Amino acid sequence: MPTLQFSRAAMKQAQVSRGVSRKELAARLGRSVSLVNHWLYGVKSPDLISIGRLADALGVEYTELIERVEVTK
Fold first, then answer.
1. Short-list 2, 7, 20, CA closest to 51
2. Model's pTM, two decimal places?
3. Segment 11-49, tens digit of pLDDT
4. For 32, which DSSP code?
5. At how many degrees (to 10) do helices 33-41 and 22-29 cross?
6. For residues 59 and 18, is the Cβ–Cβ distance under 8 A?
7. Ranges for the HTH cro/C1-type domain (predicted)?
8. Selecting from 3.10.310.70, 1.10.260.40, 3.40.50.2300, 3.90.1150.10, what CATH number does the domain 2-70 have?
9. Residues whose CB is less than 8 angstroms from the CB of residue 57 and which lie 6 or more positions away in sequence, other chains included
């Protein structure tokens, strides 16, 4: 069954391709660098509102930060 989840790889790709440091990204979001690191390393996942803000801060569509994955039971 397919489901949608936050894509850490897409976040990292957008961050690197736009030359945005983690510190700068955190400042744009009004969040801590620690939280940005948690998102990048999969310790935590951002909620939908944060994904939208993250997309805005990186200059991408929010759909670029979401991936479809198959869940098996």
1. 7
2. 0.88
3. 999 999 999 999 999 999 999 999 999 999 999 999 999
4. -
5. 110
6. yes
7. 11-65
8. 1.10.260.40
9. 20, 25, 28, 29
Count CA atoms closer than 13 A to 31's CA, side-chain side.
17
User: What is the C-alpha separation between 52 and 65, in angstroms, rounded?
Assistant: 9
pLDDT of residue 35: 98
Measured over the CA atoms of residue 47, residue 49, residue 51 and residue 57, the dihedral's sign is negative
Where do the domains of the chain lie? 2-70
